Structures are given as C-alpha cells and as structure tokens.
Write the structure tokens for this entry.
Amino acid sequence: MASILLRCFALLALFAASFKFCYCQNETINAAGWADAGATWYGEPEGAGSTGGACGYGVAVATPPLYAMVSAGGPSLFNNGRGCGTCYQIMCTGNPACSGRPITVTITDECPGGPCASEPVHFDLSGKAIGALAKPGQAGNLRAAGAIRVGYRRAACLYKGTKIAFHVDAGSTPFYMAFVVEYENGEGDLASVEIQPAGGGFVPMQEMRSAEWKLNSNGALKGPFNVRLTSGESRKVVVAQAVIPANWKPDQTYRSIVNF
C-alpha cells in the first residue's frame, strides 16, 4: 500500500510540475505561457481592421513594420490605452482551418463591446491577421467561422531595422505638444514619456488613453526636443536626442536613432 501511495504522489508531483497555474483574468496559463482567449475579426479580409484605430497609429497600421498584423483588444488588453503597442503571440488549433502555428500581433485598437466585453480576454483581429492563423488555402474558411478560440501569450515586440518614431498630432502648437510614439521594441508599452525643450529640463507628458502623449505649456515650447521614454515593466530608459527639430510641423513623423 505504501509503495502504491508513493507512486501516486510521484505522479501528482509530475503533473503539477508540468503546469503553471495563474488566476489572471480568469485564465489558466500553462507551462509554456499560453492562456485561452476568444477571437473575432473585422474590416477587410486582407486589411488592417481599421485605419489607425483608438491607439492613434493612423495609416501606420497597414504599412511596414506593422504590415496589418494587428488587433483590437477587449477591455483587459486595451487597458484604457495602456495596452497600445503591446505584442502577443496567438495560435489557434480548435478549427479544422487552423494551422496551429503562432503569429504575432500588435494591439492598435479598442474593441469595447460584444464578445470583447463579455469575455475575460478577447482579440478582434485584422482580416490579415486571422488569415495568417489558417492553413494554406484555408483563410476564407477560418474567417467564415466568425468567432474562434485561440491560445495567447505576451510577446516581445521586435521591429527589425526600425527605430522609435514620433508622429506629431495635427493639433499641436508652440503651447501644446502631442505625439504618438511608434514602434517600441520589447514590451511595447510605456510607463512614462518626458520631453525636453531647448534650454529647459525634462517635463513629464500625459498619456491620452492611447499611444499619444501630450503636454500643455504656459509658455511657447521651442525645439529641438529631446524625448525620454521609460518602458512599462522593466523601466528601461532611452533618450531620443533632438528627435523633433526646431522647425517641426504638425502632422509629421520624426524618426529617432534609438530603440529598446
């Protein structure tokens, strides 16, 4: 009897070691880091979902390095805009059209209602992204399924050969500076953004429930501007020196020479 009990305990210990449980958004995460989520898709079958979406990326969602491999996130993923720019690996296996191979998507939009709000975690994928989950020749069948179950896990963003860019808001003035931060490697989200005008010190900017950050100033702000970024979790810091020039213009994108 003792030997049987010992064998039973050994089997239970082996089973427990093979899984890692986490009560996180009502999801169980296995040892490989995969959790369960719902997924739908929106927009054109080969498109980027929407032109820009709630995160403020605009037409950048359809162009390199994002290539329309993007997703709107339900409330837990969008996280009041703090989830903008985060990356996830997604894999589907429960539909005959699924390839079982993971893809990586970036959160660029918000999905506030329907199944996005009723499920603990939900991805509303671009048409291109859901098609990339399918076996060759099966993209149309997977899109026709409408709603599917997927495995997901947080992933590091990696935009090879791309540096962080700043798209200045069309409404910016010398007294109001706002810009969208694009293409951050690593965690993808930011804990803080600070701007340093010419002759001044670094000033904290305010996040705008998106990937956009703003600063209202009592006096006219003069460039060139340095921008200091702190990543969301690891608190890594990079400084984009003189990235926004003295003769900056609204609705223009300025590219740095740094990334995380």
Summary: DSSP finds five helices and 15 strands in the chain. Confidence is low (pLDDT under 50) at residues 1-26.
